[in-house]
Amino acid sequence: MTGTDLAISIALGVVLAAATGFRVFLPMLIMSGAAYTGHLSLDNSFAWLATPFALTMLGVAALAEVLAYYVPGVDNLLDALATPAAFVAGTIVSAAVMTDLPPMAKWTAAVIAGGGTASLTQGVTTILRAKSTVMTAGLGNPVIATGELGGSILLSLLALAAPLAAVAAVILLLWLAFRLIRRQRQGTQRTNN
Questions:
Q1: How far apart are CA 162 and CA 159, in angstroms?
Q2: Contacts by 65-72 with C-beta closer than 8 Å and gap 24+?
Q3: Helix (H, G, I), strand (E, B) or coil at 58
Q4: Please, what is the angle between helix 163-192 and helix 141-161, to 10°?
Q5: Per 3-state DSSP, what percentage of the chain is helix, strand, and coil (rounded to 5)?
Q6: How many domains are there within the chain?
Q7: Using CA atoms, how far apart are residues 13 and 138, in angstroms rounded to an integer?
Q8: What is the pLDDT of residues 52-77, one digit of tens each?
Q9: Eight-class DSSP state of 42
């Protein structure tokens, strides 16, 4: 594996992991579909993700997850469950696409870069949904859910098409989210004073 191939596989893993922070199962479904159709190579130990059974189960799980985020109250409960699940999913998708790496290097990168990025993305979306719940009594949450859904799909597809450009998109999205959270905090502090 060349240095460029290594950088691309790590970028692919990190971006897919970031997408799992928006929706846990949807990026795994997209990755599974790409592997099943031969458009993505997976590490041999993750070949099960390219099977019709995995594709079907991930499809059902992704559909249930997407729909559940539009149910008031359930969306906030899912955020509590999705935080550890996003870490695990981010680690798995990262490790699955980091082929030809020694196991210790692969799993270290998958846990730190993949799991960490997924957790960061999930944390940001949890904060945004909590703020939306407080400020709009949950009426704004479907807007957040739609944005997360779009972000998950966009990042997953962009990761497959242009992994290095997708890393820039992740950085931009996180930067915008942090700015939004900071702006909301400043507005809340002004209102309380």
A1: 5
A2: 65/23, 65/24, 65/25, 65/26, 66/23, 66/26, 66/149, 69/23, 69/145, 69/148, 69/149, 70/142, 70/145, 72/138, 72/141
A3: helix
A4: 160
A5: 85, 0, 15
A6: 1
A7: 33
A8: 999 999 999 999 999 999 998 899 89
A9: -
Pull the structure tokens for residue 6: 């290594």
Q: Annotate 5-31 with three-state secondary structure.
A: HHHHHHHHHHHHHHHHHHCCHHHHHHH
CB contact at 8 A, 98 and 1: no
Under a CB-based contact definition with an 8 Å cutoff, are residues 90 and 21 in contact? yes
pLDDT digits (tens, 9 = 90+) for 80-115: 888 899 999 999 999 999 987 889 999 999 999 999
User: What is the residue range of 109's domain?
Assistant: 3-192
Q: What is the identity of the amino acid at 68?
A: A
Asked if residue 92 lies in contact with residue 28, where contact means CB atoms within 8 angstroms, the answer is: yes
CB 181 within 8 A of CB 128: yes
Q: pLDDT digits over 28-58, tens only? A: 999 999 999 999 999 999 999 999 999 999 9
Those residues with Cβ within 8 angstroms of residue 108's Cβ, 6 or more apart along the chain or in another chain:
none
